C-alpha cells in the first residue's frame, strides 16, 4: 500500500506508510521497504531549501504509537498538476527550475548513495513488448559503467505527481522517501520518462532544454534515460507494464539508443 496522508487540525498532515514508498507505487515499482529514517534525514536537509517542501513535526519510525511507521509533516497548499496545453512550456520551466535548489543542498553526502532499482540480474523485456530487440540493446547499454558525474542531493523519484500547483505556480515537491546522494541526471531522466508517458517525447525534450537553460548549461547523457526505463523491470505476476504504454517506452528507448549510437534493429 502507498503511504497515506491524513489532514490534521491546524494544517499538518500525518503520513503513514505500512511498508511501501508512495513514490515507488506511483512509478510502477514495488517491493522496496519504506525507510522513515531516510525521509526524516531528507526533510532535515530540505529545511534549508528555497523550494517549498514538507517540514517534519514529529516521527514514529518504529510504529510504536501509530501501528505503522508514521511521520507528522506540515501540509503544503496545492493540487496535482493539470496544465492546459498552452501552459505546458511554463510548466516545464518551473519543473526544471525547482531542481536547482534541491541539487545545491549542503550535506547531501549524508544521504544513502544512489543505486539502480534494477541490478540487471534478469534481462527480460516486458510481457507486452512489441520490439524486444530494442529492450535487448537497452540492457546492453545499461550494463556498461555509468557515466562519471558528481553526486548531489537528488529526489530520486521526481515526477509530476510528486509536485503541487496552485494558479499555475509550483507550490511544493513531496514524497522524499527515496531521496539519495547521486547524479542529478537521475532526477532529469525520471521526469523525462514521466513526461513521455503523459505528454510525449517532445515534452520530455523541452524539459531537458529548460533545465539546460535554467541551470546555465547541462549536458545530459541518454544512458540515464535508458536506466530510468529499465528500473521498471523485471515484471512479476503482480506488476506488469501497461500494454498501452509499451510503444511510448520503446520509442523513448529507441531515441536514446540512437543518441548514443547504439544498435537499434
From TrEMBL:
Coiled-coil stretches noted in the UniProt entry, renumbered to this chain: none
What InterPro entries does the database record attribute to this sequence?
Answer: Aminoglycoside_PTrfase, Kinase-like_dom_sf
Q: What is this protein called?
A: Aminoglycoside phosphotransferase family protein
Q: Which domain of life is it from?
A: Bacteria
Q: Per the database record, which ranges form the Aminoglycoside phosphotransferase domain?
A: 37-212
What is any Pfam family matched here? Answer: APH
